[in-house]
Design a protein that fits this description.
By secondary structure, the protein is an alpha/beta fold. Helices cover 33% and strands 18% of the residues. Strands 2-1-5-8-7 form a 5-stranded mixed sheet, sandwiched between helices. One zinc ion (ZN) binds next to α3.
């Protein structure tokens, strides 16, 4: 059976966004992409003081849902994620593992009081999803600021980098497949 990458929306995430992302990731990674059933956000992940959700709890919930034919699984949430000692995270992944998670909430221009920009929003989602899945394929952060595996401290970094792996990272991914 051919291995697949699964995308699991956490709670409510716009289904058109998920479908578009699936098509783009299919092209990029060369695996068939399946969209899985919506996963509930564990209530225990919510921190009312921060008004944010603890990312590792969502990631472990995702890991309980890994289908047997999954090469990788990507969770997509539309809530704000954090880990201790950081204000927020765009995403999280297991290095060399199967599960990756992204939040799309901070990728919207509106989040910063700016005019909506759907194209830019979708491009940022593709970059963050590719980045976190790249970690699952064993990639660490890349010093090349144009490479999708470059670390994004802010959206400025995300917007500067491309959605592609640099030639070095590409080689590592092909070997890991
Ligand atoms: Zn990273
Ligand atoms: Zn790279």
């Amino acid at each position: 059976m051919k291995e697949k990458i699964y995308i699991f929306p956490f709670h409510k995430v716009n289904s058109n966004i998920i479908k578009k992302l699936a098509l783009q990731l299919e092209k990029k990674f060369g695996y068939p992409i399946r969209i899985g059933k919506e996963i509930d956000i564990p209530p225990s992940s919510f921190n009312s003081k921060r008004n944010q959700y603890l990312s590792p709890i969502l990631l472990s919930k995702l890991k309980q849902n890994i289908p047997h034919d999954a090469a990788k699984v990507l969770g997509v949430a539309d809530v704000d994620l954090y880990v201790p000692y950081l204000n927020f995270v765009f995403g999280q992944a297991e290095l060399g593992g199967k599960a990756a998670l992204i939040s799309i909430i901070r990728l919207r221009q509106e989040y910063y009081g700016l005019k909506p920009d759907q194209k830019l929003f979708e491009l940022r989602i593709l970059k963050e999803a590719t980045h976190e899945l790249g970690h699952c394929y064993g990639l660490n952060h890349c010093p090349n600021p144009r490479c999708v595996m470059h670390f994004s401290n802010s959206l400025r970094d995300t917007d500067y980098k491309s959605h592609e792996f640099c030639s070095n990272c590409k080689k590592i991914i092909e070997r890991a497949k």
